[in-house]
Write a structure and sequence with these properties.
2 copies of one chain form a homodimer. Chain A has 890 residues and is an alpha/beta fold. The first copy, chain A, has 36 helices and 34 strands. In chain A, helix 21 links the parallel strand 27 and strand 28 (572-576). Helices cover 46% and strands 17% of the residues of chain A. In chain A, the strands form 7 sheets. In chain A, strands 15-25-24-17-18-19-20-16 form an 8-stranded mixed beta sheet. An 8-stranded parallel barrel of chain A has the order 27-28-29-30-31-32-33-34, surrounded by 6 helices. The interface between A and B is large, with 49 and 49 residues.
Chain lengths: 890, 890
């Protein structure tokens, strides 16, 4: 901020280069200048330098956008002159004049930040047309219909995206005209029809904006450039950046480029292609095109395009040319490319290339195959995969054996399986999801406004649009299941229902989507575990060879343990014993214990729990044969085991045959104002040693029992919520006594460890003392975050949104570790802990253990392992490998 | 522990000196050996060396007690031999034989730790008597009655304190005998009566203990020594150490000393004296004595003794001798002494000297006068006062103008005024006090079992006992008001009432005590502020000259501010604005604000609050003219301002004319699971900027208004619960904007500061960043303790007791700062804060700001000030001075 101010003050701005030209084989920029020129601009420059046919143009830098905001939405000194210079260069390159009637130059204006951002203003085409220039275009193209169509498109786009005239105003005029003339498609309107449409468009433009449609092309351009800058901070764009954690960018660049027309007749067209299949990753050219259309017709999904194969037959030469460019670009960028192209009267132009969005499955396959093909090294391939995306691969698919009723079929736009209740708009999707309902968002087509709802939904179903439609692209990026372009879907937003065939599905009804097959099923379907492909296995092997962190799982049952082991878990990092307390009859014994007024009563009730807990542990030890299992002693406050509602208390009284009043009183006496900071964790074991003694006995007996049956067992007993060394000492002594007793009874021994959660700030601050007793530390970052930040996770929802919005937090600190604050406690805890016990084993078992950014932090601070939920184990394996690779890069 | 083990293993024990002899002008120990010999033993040695007539004896060291516990309650090797050696020495010194019938030596056995501990076993007298030895004693003393009385006392004391035979068993026998014989006092029983009592005592001893009363004096001695060791860890002693924060001692010493008898007739007696008046501090010899009595008769308060003046007349020579000793000892110890003496047939013996317990008033006067008299330097005098004790001086006395009904009069045993509900036992006192009831504990006499109840009571009233009775001594130590020896008080424990004159006072009735006058009043009386004496002012001046920490006060009203200023507060360190929100009509405007669904509604309600808040601040600024005032913005969660009960919600609905349902819903929507960690503090200002803006405006407008009237005003605006720098930035920006606006409106300016509470651990951990914005830090150690330790203050009561008992905490961390854990955060916060802002002003405003140990910590870590409640300001001033003096010592 300061450096800009200095520049301004000292008049240095005139020397700042705001605009970069590209055209005819030479560009001032290149692909490495993404931060300055945006992704689109950098790649246009790069392609120009590569000799790929790109229409010439220029890019206004992202710094300009930053400067625009910082000076109160004004252009910096020198920008106007540079734009005019480059416009002149462009006129020279194209041999045409901007705003000229005789030989008009039309341009497109596109936004383009360093990261792809569907939330921003995208494109204004045909800029430069005025009522006078359109006459020149008619003469130049000898195509009156085309010229009027271009003009009416321009007015509509400019009106919509630059001036905020609702699209509906224009659509209504167009629909009415088609009705009047008696045709179905826009393309059936003739030049005169369109001329009249232009007249009506100008009128509605003036009615809404209060000013005439601008007849000065340069004014059109400046307004559009300002609109692009302005779109950087529109709510949609901000929301998109939040959702996608895009931060630290200066702003958007603006690309001004000579127009080429895909709508100049049947030898023209436009399309989008991927150098490999973005759904499966298969190394096969993949794309769609539309004859006689402009780019937005494809992307918006308004007409359903043809697959690229059709082009090979229709325009074999152009197809060959395109294939050559495919090869060139992929080789150059060493990654799968997403390319936009236009054919103007038989001539191919490339309008954009970028690394293509892809499914996780495709990402894995492409990365592995690029290594096989010699384009990438293993480490590079590992860094190519967003660990979070792997989630897609790991989640269940529908059980193929169950009967299914197919409602309809569409395009398999984003793989995966989803089942949920139908909703018809983004707001409902967000609201229902917030209440915990699984929802499927059903839309005719989606637009950037729907991002929030798409994110909240389990899956997305659209009636229109292709594989590269907004819905499909965004869903793949999100890893959401999506079925797009289901043409026989009649959606009625007003009555909140859709029909397909003779079935009517109402809001709130369950449907299921198979995004890999494009199937839509009636009702709720059961899912099953994903099959992991060979490529995935290969990638994981590379990750395992690279990473230093071990990856364990949080799991409370043998089933959890088995799933996690399949995903590569190297032990259990957190087995929560309290979950076992709720199952079946156990809760009765637990409640008996709580209701007891004395130790004897508690011990009697605990004796009933002992064999059950022992059985649980035996199952888990067996499932984890050969691997360590960390078992945490009872953690939650006791009131969590009692019903809070009177009706349930009365029921409990009846079942247990105790007076209701006794239960009511117990609940009352256990009530806490801040249970998070109450009588829980090791505090229970200090107050009621018999509880931890029972648990210790169950663990050690189970370990002995399975060891006798040949299982290799490594129990690690973890004491929660320790703040003071003495707490740990007291519980550790209880455990050692019980263990020795069991060993004596069973006439055998086995190694076990006693450690602690570090989840109270004081524990981290005094970790040197705690490590005198603790043989291992496991950072409980959920609670450490709650206490370190003073944020109750249950309550912070009411303000956390505001906090992320206002930039107080970059991310929800319960999802991604607050590395500065909570991270400081972790660093301190590890350093102090190892100062007294150099071989201290350190891990993390909060939910952050499955978050890639947090895992990288765990690696950096020297932890031994992370522990996360079973489905996140592969994510953690990859993230741990990436942490090593990123460290090496530095 | 290890060193002892080594000693044992290597047989070095035999060389360890366990026993120290004293007698006839020469002692092996001295006063400096208090830790080894206990206070009593060290002083007996010292006095012996000083040539003061002390009966000879020997002291078994505290290390022996430690060793006793560590080896499973066994005597260390060598102890027995050393005891026997010293016993022989003692026999030689006394010219008598232990256990001899012909020339018996009797001894007393007394416990004596390094700190005075009424909770322990105190004394067994006349040890060495057996059925045979008693005969020798008769011959030797030619006093049969005395001998039998001595024997029956010994059996009773040995039975009670060594063997645990309830005193009641013995008392009943004695009472029955007196009844039988028809006399009132023990002293009226004749030799034969007592002989029969001895017979009956022996029988009951055998019935209860299952063994004969030991007839081997050496066995009596070993059993008694073991009982003294054992009493070190009896529950009373443990509780006493907890209450008095006595820690780090090895154990108790045991003093075995030749008996001298104050009960050998009318030329014998026993007494206790203080070298100065322990209530007022007046430099006047002060004490009490009983003719023909043993020491316990005075201390236990069973008979009411005569004042010392009487002795000057009765035994002028002895009195003169005692006065000489008084001067010698005080000069030697340079402090007021509490001396126990016995006169055996005209010969004076000193049995004990120690620094005397005293009231705060006396402590101040004595310290100041000792400086005047040239015995002490100012710094030494400052260190002589326990800052906590000053509390006594600062609390209110009864308003003399109100009508009072005197119920009775007793001894002014401990000064101060107390009003409360009558209870008759310690358990009730503790239970009622726990419920927040003010109670007066009324007892016939108190005993060490009553400590807990005395601590819980506002005041103590006893029917028996003098100024040195248990009740009086303990109450003075505690700084509790006590009226003792109210002889016309008939207490009926069974019906829980007392009668005095014709008034009956029942449990739960209010009475009031004036401990300075010894008055007992009927009903509840109003109190008024204490007058501070000139000595106090002098001491405070010395403290102010010494200390480096500034002392501010926590105060929310002009009245608080005035009181604190009178006590020497140098500013307000914490003014809680929310307290103002509850007053009168304001709560309605506050509730209007909370019920508003939008900013406009909130602003409207806040506009009503603005003039009231401004008025508050004007009052406080005026009261603090010339001194800084730190005002904290709204801190508690909003739900605290709404009624939680349905009935109150309905009432509120009526008053405010809004539907009940709206209030119910609002309360529900504001409900939090962990409000401590919820939507409060600066989080409110982030969510509702209009609240902090109103408060900032009220502060700045008030400051401008009073400045116009000539008041010197230094507002410091404090933002609570900051965890992230950005939170502070957002609120600071709001405040600066408002302030500039007000300055513009008022056409004036004034300096103000913006700072923050450091109460969230994250704030301390990232204090370097926060100090970039914050101009001052105030450590909010209440919340910092809650979050740093994960302890909800409201809930931790259920386990904090167990925690202190088990030694997990030394003290309640909400009363005295957890210096290791929370202290680490404070150190870190200060160091980091000053790393980016070297002149950062740092203070503390939690309740720890009035705790002497915590204040010493604040000094050590380099804070600029502490802030505490008004009545604690002088305590803080003294503690801050002591911190400097203690630092210098090191």
């Amino acid at each position: 901020m300061k450096s800009m101010a200095v520049k301004k003050g000292s008049g240095k701005n005139k020397r700042t280069k705001y605009v970069y030209f590209f055209g005819h084989g030479k560009a001032e920029g290149n692909a490495a200048m993404k931060n300055l020129l945006g992704g689109k601009g950098a790649n246009l420059a790069e392609m120009t330098n590569l000799g790929i046919p790109v229409p010439p143009g220029f890019t206004i830098t992202t710094e300009t956008c930053d400067s625009f905001y910082k000076s109160g939405k004004k252009w910096p000194d020198g920008l106007e002159a540079q734009i005019k210079d480059n416009l002149a260069k462009l006129e020279q390159a194209m041999g045409a004049q901007f705003g000229s009637r005789d030989n008009p130059l039309l341009v497109s204006v596109r936004s383009g930040a360093a990261a792809s951002m569907p939330g921003m203003m995208d494109t204004v085409l045909n800029l430069g047309l005025t009522s006078e220039v359109v006459q020149g275009l008619i003469i130049k193209t000898e195509n009156e219909r085309f010229a009027w169509d271009a003009y009416r498109r321009f007015i509509q786009m400019f009106g919509d995206v630059v001036m905020g005239v609702e699209r509906d105003h224009f659509e209504q005029i167009l629909d009415k005209k088609k009705e009047q003339v008696g045709v179905k498609y826009d393309s059936e309107l003739c030049a005169n029809d369109l001329k009249d449409v232009v007249r009506q468009y100008k009128k509605v433009y003036q009615d809404v904006t209060g000013e005439e449609f601008p007849q000065d092309p340069y004014q059109q351009l400046t307004k559009t450039i300002n609109a692009v800058f302005g779109s950087w901070n529109n709510p949609r764009a901000i929301r998109y950046r939040q959702l996608n954690e895009i931060r630290g960018l200066l702003g958007t660049a603006v690309n001004v480029q000579a127009m080429v027309f895909g709508n100049m007749g049947d030898s023209s067209g436009t399309g989008v292609c991927f150098t490999r299949n973005p759904s499966t990753g298969e190394n096969k050219f993949y794309g769609e095109f539309l004859v006689n259309a402009q780019g937005e017709d494809v992307v918006a999904g308004i007409r359903t395009p043809q697959p690229l194969d059709g082009m090979a037959k229709q325009w074999p030469d152009i197809y060959k040319q395109l294939c050559a460019i495919r090869t060139k670009l992929e080789k150059h960028y060493r990654d799968m490319q997403d390319i936009e192209f236009t054919i103007q009267e038989g001539k191919l132009f490339i309008l954009q290339t970028r690394n293509g969005k892809r499914t996780a499955q495709a990402a894995v396959r492409i990365a592995v195959e690029l290594v096989k093909e010699g384009f990438l090294k293993q480490g590079e391939a590992l860094l190519r995969i967003d660990p979070k995306q792997l989630d897609q691969l790991l989640h269940p698919t529908f059980d193929p054996k169950q009967p299914k009723t197919v409602l309809s079929k569409g395009l398999p736009a984003s793989p995966g399986a989803a089942t949920g209740k139908v909703v018809f708009n983004a707001e409902d999707a967000e609201a229902w999801a917030a209440k915990g309902e699984p929802v499927i968002l059903v839309r005719i087509e989606t637009s950037p406004e729907d991002i929030g709802g798409m994110n909240a939904a389990k899956g997305i179903l659209t009636a229109r649009g292709g594989m590269t439609s907004h819905a499909a692209v965004v869903a793949r990026g999100m890893g959401k299941c999506c079925v797009a372009g289901v043409s026989n879907l009649q959606i009625d937003y007003a009555s909140k229902e859709f029909r397909t065939g003779d079935v009517t599905v109402k809001q709130g009804d369950f449907i299921s989507l198979d995004g890999s097959l494009g199937q839509v099923y009636q009702g709720k379907l059961n899912t099953m575990d994903a099959e992991l492909s060979g490529d995935f296995g290969k990638l994981m092997k590379w990750a395992d060879q690279t990473r230093k962190l071990k990856v364990r799982t949080n799991g409370d049952t043998p089933v959890d343990a088995q799933v996690a082991r399949k995903f590569g878990a190297e032990g259990i990092g957190l087995c929560r014993t309290e979950h076992m307390f709720f199952e079946g009859d156990r809760i009765i014994a637990v409640r008996e214990m709580i209701l007891s007024d004395n130790k004897e009563g508690r011990e009697k009730a605990l004796a009933k729990l002992l064999p059950m807990q022992r059985g649980d542990f035996e199952g888990i030890f067996k499932a984890m044969d050969g691997l360590p299992v960390t078992i945490r002693l009872l953690d939650p406050p006791l009131h969590e085991f009692l019903p809070q509602e009177e009706a349930n208390q009365r029921e409990m009284a009846q079942v247990m045959n105790v007076p209701f009043e006794k239960i009511r009183q117990k609940v009352e006496s256990l009530h806490e104002f801040n249970p998070m900071l109450g009588h829980r964790g090791c505090r229970l074991g200090v107050s009621y040693p018999e509880i931890s003694q029972m648990q210790a006995r169950a663990i050690i007996e189970a370990a002995c029992n399975v060891k006798k049956r040949g299982v290799k067992v490594f129990p690690e007993i973890m004491i929660p919520l320790v703040g003071m060394k003495k707490e740990l000492d007291i519980l550790a002594e209880q455990i050692v006594q019980v263990a020795n007793q069991v060993f004596e009874e069973k006439k055998m021994k086995l190694p076990y460890m006693i450690g602690t959660m570090i989840e109270v700030p004081r524990a981290a601050l005094t970790a040197d003392r705690i490590a005198e007793t603790a043989q291992f530390f496991s950072f409980g970052t959920n609670d450490l975050t709650q206490m370190g930040l003073g944020f109750s996770r249950d309550d912070s929802g009411s303000f956390l949104g505001t906090y992320v919005e206002q930039g107080i937090f970059e991310k929800d600190p319960f999802q991604s570790l607050d590395q500065e604050g909570v991270g400081a406690l972790i660093r301190l805890g590890i350093q102090k802990g190892r100062s007294t016990r150099p071989d201290l084993k350190v891990g993390i078992c909060g939910e952050h253990g499955g978050d890639p950014a947090s895992i990288e932090f765990c690696h950096r601070v020297g932890m031994n392992y992370v522990s996360c939920s079973p489905y996140r184990v592969p994510i953690a394996r990859l993230a741990a490998a990436q942490a090593v690779l990123k460290e090496k890069k530095k």
